[in-house]
Amino acid sequence: MKILILGNGAFGSVMASYLKKKGHKVLPESEISKAEAIFVSLPSFAVVPELLKLKNKITKSKIIICSKGFSNDGELLSEALKRKLKNKIFFLYGPTLAHELKEGVFSGMVLSGPSGKEKLKKELESESLHIELSEDVVGVQIGSGLKNAVTIFVGIAEGAKYGDNTKAYIFTKGVCEIAKIGKALGGDMSTFLGLTCIGDLTLHSRNRSIGVEIGKGKNIRSIIGKLDYVPEGIVAVQNIKILGIKKKIKMPIMDILYKIIFGGMSPSAGVEMIKKLP
After folding, report:
1. How far apart are CA 185 and CA 100, in angstroms?
2. Is 147 a catalytic residue?
3. pLDDT digits (tens, 9 = 90+) for 214-243
4. For the chain, what is the largest distance between any 2 Cα atoms, rounded to a whole number of angstroms?
């Protein structure tokens, strides 16, 4: 396949290298109109506007979204894109640290989307990368987006010197809330037990490291100011609040997390509130 990668971060760069080794041709952006498939590894809030800029050049391309999160107005990327693009849109998520993919460590991902994903799986899969197929487009987006938020909360507990038992409690309650939100939006409960949610939560990601810093009492603005990227989990916390209000979904853990990050609530006060949840 002729492939274009949108997003030059760690994951996008590793995918470009991986796909070249698979025998695919990775194109420069100047040849975007020739691309048969476009892999999108941009920050989630940039996905819709960037693809719309390229709309007239990508009419024949399959689009594979690797960005984890929601659009800026708290909408699922699948919903925002289907109104504006006629392309076939797929979602490829899983617990895949970029450096391990680069080293060929065995990994697994989930590919969700319309017809044609079976063929796409064959084009992407290798001995080092197993790909599962899913019909649950909503569930894979909710799980992969909100696991970033939950892992921040686990990191906050770690930074605030809570023990493993407390972190396990937050992890579990967080997964339950993700599943509740996902089910309310039409997702399949089994999806949240798979690679895109619980599987991805097991990794010690950059989002968890940010949570640790918040747990130590550092201000989110000062943390972000030292980074050269926008933390997906932080954006997800903002956007899921918008989505929750729109859809009238109660999400107490996400609300507590929002208050810790943006509302001045202390980590200890947040944990105390979680203790009181049913």
Report:
1. 33
2. yes
3. 999 999 999 998 888 878 899 999 999 999
4. 56
Rounded to whole angstroms, the Cα distance separating 194 from 198 reads 6
The residue to which tokens 């709309």 are assigned: 55
The domain locations on the chain are 2-135, 138-275
167-191 per-residue burial string, b: 16 or more CB within 10 A, e: under 16: bebbbebbbebbbbbbbebebbeeb
Q: Which two tokens stand for residue 79?
A: 């919903």
Phi-psi region of 161 (alpha: psi -120 to 50; beta: other; left: phi over 0): left
Residues 253, 273 contacting (CB under 8 angstroms): no
CA distance 223 to 90: 33
Q: What is the pTM of this model?
A: 0.93
Strands (E), 51-174: 62-65, 89-93, 107-112, 129-134
Q: Looking at domain 138-275, what is its CATH homologous superfamily?
A: N-(1-d-carboxylethyl)-l-norvaline Dehydrogenase; domain 2 (1.10.1040.10)
Catalytic annotation, pick one of 147, 246, 259, 275: 147
Alpha carbon separation from 58 to 52, 92, 110, 140, 262 (Å, rounded)? 10, 19, 24, 24, 38
DSSP string, 191-202: GGGSIIIIIHHT
